[in-house]
Amino acid sequence: MTHPTPPAATAADPSFPDLLAAAESALPALLGAIGSVVGVETPSADLAAVAHGAEQVAALGTGMLGIAPETLTVDGCTHLRWRLGGSGPRVLILCHQDTVWPLGTLERLPFAIRDGVLTGPGSFDMKTGLVMAFHALQLLGAGGSSGTEVPAVTVLVTGDEEIGSPTSRALIEQEASTAAATFVLEASGDGGRIKTGRKGVSMYQVTVTGRASHAGLEPEKGINAGVELARLILQIEQFADLAAGTSVVPTAASIGTTGNTVPASATVSVDSRAWTVDEQHRVDAAMRALRTAHPEAALEIGGGINRPPMDPAQAQPLFELAGELAVGLGLPAPQEISVGGGSDGNFTAGVGCPTLDGLGAVGGGAHADTEHVLVAEIAGRTALLAALIRSVCAGSPTR
């Protein structure tokens, strides 16, 4: 892909607005918008809840960006896409609005801001980052009447990231394949670190089917799926290679129906993370070579490799640019980190699009009751995102 390359803008360029001051003055409105988004529960597996959340995000984004999104429904899951600006290098802003939290969580973990800490289900992962993206684009003229030319940006808000992006992956890869860069608004690493590398993710469902019988009267007539699965679990955990950074972890399991019945069915989920594609394929081959000990027990291996690894090398030009822009804005230069958790940034980097991840909220407690965001970091992160967008769209090298 080639783009016209105009002179690159920098934070020291006099045409650069005072993004940090503007972001700080907009902080009260930004916090209010975060509260409205966190206040709508969107568990990934509940398609109706995700659709309702998408309606709320669409309304918020329409008001802030000045145009309505396309609503893209794939296999019942709702995604949103905005296209702003015109010609020139295009940036993809990637967000998701689904969460791991079940309906009803807000009753015990309501949205709140106390002592500079923002809390609520999905606040850190990643609804704060979603709202930051809208505000960053507002700082660059989106939704305004000043006549400022809005950079060429696509905003994609998906609804199934937390379950592996089964319906949004094709959309993500399609947009990334023609973008100059992707900025992922997932939460930051420890201390606000930008995520330049991620492990690849593989997810499996191992199911054993045996034969039920009465556990007390005639256990010998059954085929114990639980025992067969237990043997397999002990094999599966041996597929890990900690020296190579490869984890293979049996997680959620389900065995049998009642306490006095030989279980006819047993399942376990397996989560695997690896730094290299070769390691992903090694684990995949080992998983598919599994066999039950009992000749009449049936075995099914579902799932497989989900996300490719995100190589830190692909992000280095963008990370260096982020450092230069941060200093120009009067902010500390960010640090980088590679992490075991996957995101949709794995997909964008996987199709060759330079990707910076973890540009969203600073805080902690993802997927836990302690989930929180540090309010003092929001304005600076928003200003840095705006600076990155403007600089890349103005032609700063991304490779």
UniProtKB/TrEMBL annotation:
Pfam families reported in the protein's UniProt record: M20_dimer, Peptidase_M20
Record's keyword terms, sorted: Hydrolase, Metal-binding
The keyword Nucleotide-binding is assigned to this record: no
Domain annotation Peptidase M20 dimerisation: ranges: 196-294
GO molecular function, one term: hydrolase activity
Protein name (Swiss-Prot/TrEMBL): M20 family metallopeptidase
InterPro entries according to UniProt: Bact_exopeptidase_dim_dom, Pept_M20_glutamate_carboxypep, Peptidase_M20, Peptidase_M20_dimer, Peptidase_M20A
Active site as annotated: D98, E161 (proton acceptor)
